[in-house]
Each structure stands twice: as C-alpha cells, then as structure tokens.
Amino acid sequence: SSPGAYKLHVVAGDEGHVPEELRARKVLVKRADGEHEEQQVETLPEAELGREWEWEETPELSLKIVDDAEHAAALFNRYSPQFVATCISEDPKEHERFYNKTNAPFVGNGFTRWVDGQYALDRPELGLSNWEGGRLFG
Length: 138
Hints:
- This protein is of the alpha/beta class and 138 residues long.
- The protein is 22% helix and 22% strand.
- The protein is built from four helices and seven strands, in the order βαββββαβαβα.
- It has helices spanning 20-24, 69-79, 92-101, 117-121, and strands at 7-11, 26-31, 34-39, 41-44, 60-63, 84-86, 106-108.
- The strands form three sheets. The chain has a three-stranded parallel beta sheet with strand order 4-1-5.
- Helix 2 (69-79) packs parallel to helix 3 (92-101).
- The two termini are 31 Å apart.
C-alpha cells in the first residue's frame, strides 16, 4: 500500500466535512487479494456504521459527524456491536453524558485500538487484549 495510506468511509451527507483534496485522491490499498488503487474517501450508508473493516496493512475507518454526545451514543447503540466506544471532547460533562448513554463495557476518551489485537500484537482478530502487553481476554 502507499506509505501512510488509509481508507476513509464517510457517512453519506457528511462528505463536506472532508477536504476536497482527500475526496479526489486515489491510494493503493492492500487487500487480501493484493493491492488495489481506490478512492481514499468513499461514502457509506449510515446503516453500515457497524461494519468492521478488514485491515491487512491499510488502516480503514468510518466517519460520522454528530450533533452532540447523545447523537453519537444513539448511533453507537443502534449500529455497533456495543463493545468499545470513545468520546473525543475536552468537556468532562459531555464525556459523562456519553458514558451514561452508551451501552459499552469499555468507554474511553481517545482511540479504541488499545482493546484490539491489531494494535497490541500487530495481528487482527486475536481476541481482546489489554494495553500494549497483549494479555488475551478471550
């Protein structure tokens, strides 16, 4: 894949929040069957927010712009497998509202890769792991 390449799936209607330069860019994405040139940014129906992306070597993520913590929690509870959520905000009250509305055993205030074997052990789907030590939970 292209060095530093990533794939961004933006929920339809939120494309305007992504710079045109990214929406126009093509990158090499490494898939199970080899490298493919793809648009860096593609639209995604909201109903697919719970989709888990394969991540051979090219990171993939979904982006949905929300109105507030309650909106984010409602989308999480509706579409996700309800395992791990994060609220990126500097407002402690917003974190508390998100935590209270979200049905997840792990709620953080940053990235969520810390509970994933891909991040901790450089291997996808190895089960749950703790921070960088890689102790498996299941």
